[in-house]
Design brief:
Belongs to the short-chain dehydrogenases/reductases (SDR) family. Keywords: Lipid metabolism, Oxidoreductase. InterPro entries: NAD(P)-bd_dom_sf, SDR_fam. It is a single chain. With 253 residues, the chain is α/β, with parallel strands linked by helices. It has one domain: NAD(P)-binding Rossmann-like Domain (Rossmann fold, 3-Layer(aba) Sandwich), CATH 3.40.50. The strands form two sheets. Strands 3-2-1-4-6-7 form a six-stranded parallel β-sheet, with helices on both faces. The protein has a two-stranded parallel sheet with strand order 5-8. Helix 1 packs parallel to helix 2, helix 3 packs parallel to helix 4 and helix 4 runs parallel beside helix 5. The longest helix is centred in the middle third of the chain and has 29 residues. The protein is globular and about 60 Å long. The chain binds NADP nicotinamide-adenine-dinucleotide phosphate. The site of NADP nicotinamide-adenine-dinucleotide phosphate has 29 residues, from helix 1, helix 4, strand 6 and helix 6.
Length: 253
């Protein structure tokens, strides 16, 4: 069977990295994986995880989902000239009292999570439509289904991604393109470490004392949830892989 060409965003760590490793290590070499990341200086971790198994099943490309030109450049570097499965995974969290967030920070988070997902889909969609074939998998979140305190902007971005993807899915079924949202709960990745976070002890934090103490409690709760109840990336990869496989089997002749 012809290799399925997969492009994944945000492969420097976490879910993106694990998915790239799993697909590129498929024993029947069923996938050619374009593992993209915004900063190629971080590629060592991925290379170490895939341990030389990637010769003909993985290529690493630079791609920043906030930079249209870098998405176009990545597309140009896909030697097969097509993407069968697009995985929009890049994302960043933002935690803290809403009134303490600068508009620049809010904009930056929306730019990655919402506009980054839309830019990426926009870039690869016309080819998929022409071919009447394609699969789009998006790393959504429980925070896109249900609001979480001190995560207003992150949740807003993930709710918006839900709306965009659900709307697209209706149209794209006419083009044999399936859109799937994988709505993760807490997952053991670098997400908590990488998210943009306001510290309750921050002297310049202009919020009242009650909000500050509720935020402090929330952060402790959050740490304990991630320590005690977070899923392993393997659980998420299983769902993503299963979705990709099911969709491939459903391809119309
Ligand atoms: N972990 C969780 O608990 C959880 C729960 C629900 C949903 N999710 C979602 O799962 C996805 C993956 O997160 P993760 O848990 O694997 O966290 P992670 O380890 O922090 O990975 C996030 C990835 O996104 C990349 N990224 C950030 N901004 C980018 C940009 N402008 N262009 C391209 N890549 C960019 C990061 O690259 P850098 O290394 O360069 O920053 C990193 O590779 C995110 O969409 C997140 O919202 C995670």
């Amino acid at each position: 069977m012809e290799q399925k060409v997969v492009l994944i965003t945000g492969c420097s760590s976490g879910i993106g990295l694990s998915l790239a490793v799993h697909l590129a290590s498929n024993p029947s070499k069923a996938y050619k994986v374009y593992a993209t990341m915004r900063n190629l200086d971080k590629k060592q971790r991925l290379l170490e995880s895939v341990r030389g198994l990637h010769k003909d099943t993985m290529a690493i490309l630079q791609m920043d989902v906030t930079d249209q030109q870098s998405i176009l450049d990545a597309k140009k570097n896909v030697t097969e000239g097509r993407i069968d499965i697009l995985v929009c995974n890049a994302g960043v969290g933002l935690m803290g009292p809403l009134e303490a967030q600068s508009l620049d920070t809010i904009h930056a988070v929306l730019d990655v999570n919402l506009l980054g997902t839309i830019r990426t889909i926009q870039t690869f969609l016309p080819d998929m439509k022409r071919k009447r074939l394609g699969r789009i998998l998006v790393t959504g979140s429980m925070g896109g289904l249900q609001g979480l305190p001190f995560n207003e902007v992150y949740c807003a971005s993930k709710f918006a991604v839900e709306g965009a993807c659900e709307s697209l899915a209706i149209l794209l079924q006419h083009f044999n393109i399936h859109v799937s949202l994988i709505e993760c709960g807490p997952v053991n990745t670098d997400f908590l470490m990488n998210l943009k976070r306001t510290e309750p002890s921050d002297e310049v934090l202009e919020v009242d004392g009650y909000t500050r103490s509720l935020y402090d409690q929330y952060l402790q709760h959050c740490q304990s949830v991630f320590q005690n109840a977070a899923q392993d990336t393997d659980d998420i990869i299983q769902v993503l892989q299963q979705t990709a496989r099911t969709l491939i089997q459903n391809v119309k002749p």
